Amino acid sequence: MRTQFLTLVILSTALSACISTSSTDTHSPLTKEALGQHLYFDTQLSANITQSCATCHSPSHGFADPRDNGVKGAYSLGDDGSSLGDRNAPTAAYAMFSPNFRLNKKGQYIGGQFHDGRESDLAGQAGGPPTNPIEMGMPNKEAIVTRLQENPLYITSFKAIYGDNVFNDTEKSYAAMADSIASFERTELFAPFDSKYDRYLSGEYKMTEQEELGRTLFFSQQFTNCHLCHQLNKSQRHTQETFTNYEYHNIGVPTNAEGRLKNGVDLDTADLGLLNHPAVDDPKQAGKFKVPTLRNIAVTGPYMHNGVFQDLRTVVLFYDKYNSRSKKRRINPETSKPWGKPEVPQNLALKELETGPALKEQRIDALVAFMKTLTDKRYEHLINSK
């Protein structure tokens, strides 16, 4: 069962307000998960005290960034109120299941955190944003550790969990902060597995005719290519399917030109994806991004690594253009113009993209309907709003 303190995160936004530097040393130390929870919502970890992890990974919106930010939600706005990123903030939900970044037996890169896997695990990801100048904007780790020690409850808890000398070394204390946040992100709150799909597996929900058609198509090895990247387990009835194989592929996503006019990044500057990973120097990896989970996909748009598409149906149409000869499929319904050219035209995953026949409108709608059933129960009310 989910513990009461985790449930309260969803029901109340007052948690961050209760993180007070006026606490006294008489407080009992927190558990590692509870400490991570406090840190996750603590705006003191940002330069201007305006942002926390929850700002861009909101627990009330699928652990994604629900803000428009002047770019239709494509990028996140930094703590300074003006800086914009160049990638869409991925959901932190179900992120705990991504394996550490590595080469698999097939010689393919898998796992890691962020769109390019540049951090191997959750703790590495948690430690990134606070010192990123266009995110939380703290000048260095020392400044963050100083902020941590302004809270007596943090001092008591850090020492109880990580040892009395934890604050004697900046790197050690910063790593402890990231580790505790990662521990919170491994709790059931981030992965309840209680969507309609999960309830269908347990016999508690009956799919509609359209949803059932979408489910059949999704897992089909004949009529769609969805399973090639978005099915981790061989069984269609696996109780903890994350709907990603954690591989990296270049699917030909176009540049988000509108977004880049707002964030000031040159339109000719290609995001090289996996090739930006410090441990990757193979040009064949350029333009590849990690396959995202489809859990909560209906409520965590916009889509693709750069937020270039607003609607989930547009994403399905984008994939279908690789197999359809219809003139209609050559047009992006969101712009009424032809699909933009791939930002990185090399290394396209054509084997995967061109698998399967073209889809008729009925089947596209059915796939979208099925993906909506992957929404955690607490977010179902957001589906229509998206």
Describe the structure.
The chain is mostly helical. It folds into two domains: 4-112 and 121-190, Cytochrome Bc1 Complex, Chain D, domain 2 (Orthogonal Bundle), CATH 1.10.760.10; 196-382, Cytochrome c-like domain (Cytochrome Bc1 Complex, Chain D, domain 2, Orthogonal Bundle), CATH 1.10.760.10. It has helices spanning 4-11, 32-40, 53-56, 122-126, 141-148, 152-162, 170-185, 196-201, 209-219, 227-230, 257-263, 312-320, 350-353, 361-372, and strands at 102-103, 109-110, 248-249, 289-290, 331-332, 337-338. A hairpin with a 5-residue loop joins strand 1 (102-103) and strand 2. Helix 5 crosses helix 7 and helix 9 crosses helix 14. The radius of gyration is 21 Å and the shape is globular.
CATH topology of the largest domain: Cytochrome Bc1 Complex, Chain D, domain 2
Mean pLDDT: 93
> Which strand order do you get reading across the main beta sheet?
1-2
Portion of residues in beta strands equals: under 5%
- Rg for CA atoms: 21 Å
Q: How many discrete domains?
A: 2
Contiguous helical run count: 14
| Broad shape | globular
Question: Share of helix among residues?
Answer: 25-40%
Q: Mind telling me the CATH class of the largest domain?
A: Mainly Alpha
Q: By helix and strand content, what is the structural category?
A: mainly alpha
